[in-house]
Task: structure prediction
Amino acid sequence: MTIIVKWAVALISGFVFISLAIAANPKPDATIRNANIEANVYLDDKIKADSALAADCLGEGKKWIDKNAAEAAADRKQEPDLFKDRGGYSFERKYSERSVVDGRYVSVLRDDYMDTHGAHPNSDVNTILWDTTAKKRISIRPFFTETADNGPALTAMRKAIVSALNAEKKRRGAGETATAEWYKELKPSLLTFHYPPYAVGPYAEGQYVIFVPWETLKPYLTPEGAKIFAGARPKGDADEQQ
Result:
């Protein structure tokens, strides 16, 4: 079974950010544990406060558990020695509220941890944009005048991300990896703004949380997009960097 570690980009209250995270809580909202796998799903308290959002996340989380459980069972059948000394696989998913924009749009982080007995555990982070009025997940596309691959908006977004990454790498003393060669997999495509660690630097550099002011994307926002993304950087976001 192949697990890919990815970075994710989300639009949150006027900023773009890239994040890699693992999180855990003591009491799972969904769980499975047997000889093949231990998998847990957690919802934070803010997610639970919205019954529709909680049901959506939990439903997805349970399907994720079932899928991984089936794959673990198949792997154990094919390679029993892989489980003999190390036990079953371990999976963990956490849904947490990152921010709420305009009192309506909720940005949700979905953090995954996966140990499938490889060289080291892997992590993945993705984002969900939830509309509390429509009570469903939505795309960010309607907030932009265009979102074509290699188009003006996504090209500007990529340029701003690379610039912010370079500044952060320099601050950390990792400027030697702030090169075009390291960034060649960063494509200006809405559906591929998910980056593995090796796309921006060595795995050992850890996570990067990169913010881009909303003004950078202002020329490409629809009136509704400009309305919800305009504003100052949310308090506390500056502390997210590791």
User: Anything to note?
Assistant: The radius of gyration is 19 Å.
